[in-house]
Amino acid sequence: MTFSQQTKGEILKSIKTSRSCCCDTFVYTVLKATGSLELTVKGLALSVSSENADFLHVLSDVAYRSAGVRATVQSENTSAKGAVIYRAVFDKRLLKKFPLAYRDEEGFIKLNEDIALKNMDACCVRTFVQALFVSCGSLVVPDGGALTDDLPAGRYHMEFVLQKQDFAQFALKVLQDAGFNFRITQRKNNYVLYIKESEQIADMLVFMNAMSAKLQLENVIIQRNLRNVANRQSNCISANIDKSVNASARQIQSITLLQEHGKLALLSKQLQQIARLRLDNPDATMSELAEMSQLTKSGVAHRLDKLVVLARQLEEQGEN
Ligand SMILES: [Zn+2]
User: Fold this and answer.
1) Which of 13, 142, 242, 246 registers the highest number of CB atoms within 10 A of its CB?
2) 3-209 domain in CATH 3.40.50.300?
3) pTM of the model
4) Distance 99 CA to ligand 1 centre (A)
5) Torsion angle defined by CA atoms of residues 269, 274, 280 and 282, in that order, rounded to the nearest 10 degrees
6) How far apart are CA 141 and CA 121, in angstroms?
């Protein structure tokens, strides 16, 4: 089960059906977001398709509370991905309560583009967002458990996919008024409302009463932060190790060259001492060499640098 599906399951359990205003809002929002109008042998009908049978059963129950009409829920043919698609069909009695379509003067059936959700109470704003999520929402979060990180960064994503521009703009305004910075974009023939900030997504989950999804998301955020800190530290440490290993190798090379040309014995006692110390301790860090030689770190570095410079001069002389 995906995180999206799990979250929808949790939201469906917390839909407020004790208030009739919220029942109306839920049914209307779902129909507006994903419903389609059909002409059947029994006349006009409204249908909602989904891979989630639980969602359609909840929709049917809430529609019964709201309008006294239940849906027939059947499994349909499978989707391209092989999942079973379910379809809830309401007969035209539901259209009496929710005028989503009308007959024009010539008798043609037209979709009603008006949006009948004006001045929603706070309870209904929450129900609206919940209905939107269970019918056309999805949510992706990175896998916080895995230590290998082969997915691109910034993988928190919540979106709603809507077909009608007016309704998408309306939903955008409701979400923004509720404090969520959703943006809108067009994808094929759809209007997509989305957020990518993990904090905003967490707040949305709280708003939709999906508390265990929110806790799960927080876990992912914490684990990723820890992993990022650990990665940064180990990158930093290995970069420093590389640097000092390279430096030590270069110093040893220089000292050996000076030695081979009989130049080391001609240098000052201090330089000879540090050269010997380096040759004896190829893996020692600057701090360790400083401690062994009773010099400061910069004193050690200065003398070793001097040896490297002398060796380079010797090399250059040899080339000329
Ligand atoms: Zn309400």
Assistant:
1) 142
2) no
3) 0.70
4) 19
5) -160
6) 31
Per-residue pLDDT for 149 more than 70?
A: no
Check whether 178 has a pLDDT greater than 60: yes
Under a CB-based contact definition with an 8 Å cutoff, are residues 303 and 271 in contact? Answer: yes
Question: From ligand 1's centre to the CA of 128, what distance in Å?
Answer: 9
Q: For residue 265, what is the DSSP state?
A: G
Domain range annotation of the chain: 3-209, 241-319
Element (H, E) at 178: none
**Amino acid letter, 77:** N
CA of 300 to the centre of ligand 1 (A): 76
Report the separation in Å between the CA atom of 178 and the middle of ligand 1, taken as the mean of its atom positions: 15
53-74 tens-digit pLDDT? 999 999 999 999 999 999 999 9
Across the chain, which distance is largest between two alpha carbons, in Å? 112
In this structure, which residues have their CB less than 5 angstroms from ion ligand 1? Answer: 19, 21-22, 123-124
